[in-house]
Amino acid sequence: MRREGLDDPPGGGSGDVGSVIRADGLEVGYRDHVVWKDASFTVERGEFIALIGPNGAGKTTLFRLLLGLQRPRAGTLTVFGVRPERGNPRIGYVPQRHTIDNETNVESETLVRLGGSGARWGPGFSWRAEREAAAVALRAVGATELAHRPLGALSGGELQRIFLAEALIGNPEMLLLDEPLSNLDLRRSRELVELVHGLVQSRHVTTLLVAHDINPLIECLDKVIYVANGHVATGRPDEVLTSEGLSALYGVSVEVLHDSRNNIVIVGGENPHEGRGP
Amino acid sequence: MTDFSWNLVTDLRLMWSFHFMQNAFEAGTMIAVVAGIVGYLVVLRRSAFATHALGHGGFSGAAAAVLLGANPVYGLLVFTMGMGTGMALLGQRAANRDVEIGTLLAFTLGLGLVFLSLYKGFADEVYSLLFGEILGISDAGVVLTVEVSAVVLAGLALIARRLLFASLDEDVAEAKGLPMFGLGLAFMLMLAVAISIAVQIVGVLLIFALMVTPAAVAIRLTQRPLYAVLTSVAVALVATWVGLFVQFFSNYPASFFIVAIAFGGYLSVRIGQALAGRLSRRAAPSTPAPS
């Protein structure tokens, strides 16, 4: 397993030709503010990756780059071998922010179907193929019985399943999930992680998941991308989440502790649960 | 006051023997269809305040048109479309921007006051702009209403699905490559046109009766967008037709009956659903509420 951007100088991300994502010397920012820089990493097909880091560290910004919604200020980024462009049907996306709320009296199946056909012209009321695709996507996330429930009446965990189905309906090769666990209790978090992990394994869909807390994920992950203090570190969880590695990343002394059930607690420097800029 | 008989066929035949009533029904039907459909998107996108502001801003445009001796509808169209463009420029979901819309609203109403003070003696026009006066619509007015309605309906048919997607899941729609500013602008322009023609029936003060209430009824009755749009149009049509009918035989303003019927529909749905919810809870007391 490669290890980059920790102690070694970054830029050594020379992966296989078939890498799904290839980032080399990436730098992003808004106007005169640099969010992070010198990010070099590769993501291979079928990997399950967590993006971890404090609030405002630039995790969602990486998603925006991958979706073609934002351009890097420096460096190169390719997704499926080409520069990312908006509207890539090979990517399924679940954003952190959603327009719907508990007043939205629209059945769930409508949203799932729009995930597949929402960019089409014309009114398009009810096509059989579209309904069937929605049914397949809903079944894949175990939400068949939610199809005709209104979005506004769903719980947080149920909603995340619907969003996942909306992202899956076009059979994407990559999933970008932004904070899907943020409003879920521990049990629902684990259920959703198991669901996503199952999809990664059965469909070989490359999955990047933004999370605050790595603990519900740690057993399923292939890689961690840790974003903090203007830098990005990539590697296996046990490589990245070490006292030395995170201390180097933050630039101050950080300690990684393990409890009896192998949960990770990060102490000092910044707490990833309530992180602030240094 | 026209004589009302209990024979509905005779009544309808009598009513439609008047040219101005034919005009009113033709224009009213088109307006109800457009308002019912656009209203669903207004409710879905939480754009009620934008609708309110566009109607009132349109009032100033209409006052300016009257001042220049033109058909008020042209003033309405120019002002509402201008304001709609301004709101679209404010942001993708300008509908939620209360403060900006309020600022724009105050300014356009101020303009309206200037036009009013410049032009003396147009109390009748002002009154019909505020509360609607569909019986006065001219042949040319009917043609204009049908034409702009057809443009809005064709535009809606083209972008309905994209607009629904952008309204329900903005961030995903943007990532899928939908032109969010273009869709927001298209929606505001359609809303502007719908309001401009609907003002002819219900006036700027009662615009919600056609632009919001029918859709508010529909969205409570069905969760499927197509059914909701059809229901919304049906409510708007019934309210408009019955309103015109009652006005013809009573000489009370149609606007009032349209507002009353639409509101009656809304109230019945809310009460009916509250009762149904109570009954179903009583029938199955052990079922826990969905979490």
Pattern of helices and strands of chain A: EEEHEEHHHEHEEEHHEE
So what's the overall shape of chain B? globular
- Main sheet: strand order of chain A: 5-6-7-3-8-9
Query: Pair with the most extensive interface?
Result: A-B, 37 and 32 residues
Instruction: Summarize the main sheet of chain A.
Output: 6 strands, mixed
Computed structural class of chain B: mainly alpha
Q: Give the mean pLDDT of chain B.
A: 90
Number of helices of chain A: 7
CATH superfamily of the largest domain in chain A: P-loop containing nucleotide triphosphate hydrolases
CATH class assignment of the largest domain in chain A? Alpha Beta
Termini separation of chain A? 30 Å
**CATH-derived architecture of chain B:** Orthogonal Bundle
Number of self-contained structural domains of chain B: 1
CATH superfamily of chain B: ABC transporter involved in vitamin B12 uptake, BtuC
CATH topology of chain B: ABC transporter involved in vitamin B12 uptake, BtuC
What's the order of the H and E elements of chain B? Answer: HHHHHHHHHHHHH
| Number of beta-strand segments of chain A | 11
Cα distance, first to last residue of chain B?
A: 58 Å
- Please tell me the CATH architecture of the largest domain in chain A by its name: 3-Layer(aba) Sandwich
Tally of DSSP helical segments of chain B: 13
Helix content percent band of chain B: over 70%
Please describe what this structure looks like:
The complex is a heterodimer of chains A (278) and B (291). Chain A is an alpha/beta fold. Helices cover 27% and strands 24% of the residues of chain A. The two termini of chain A are 30 Å apart. Mean pLDDT of chain A is 86; it is low at 1-16 and 270-278. Chain B has 291 residues and is mostly helical. Chain B has one domain: ABC transporter involved in vitamin B12 uptake, BtuC (Orthogonal Bundle). Chain B is globular and about 55 Å long. The chains are: A alpha/beta (278), B mainly alpha (291). Chain A binds chain B through residues 67, 69, 85-87, 91, 93-95, 97-100, 104-107, 110-111, 114-115, 117-126, 148, 150, 153, 155, 166-167, and chain B through 44, 93, 156-162, 164-178, 219-220, 223-226, 290-291.
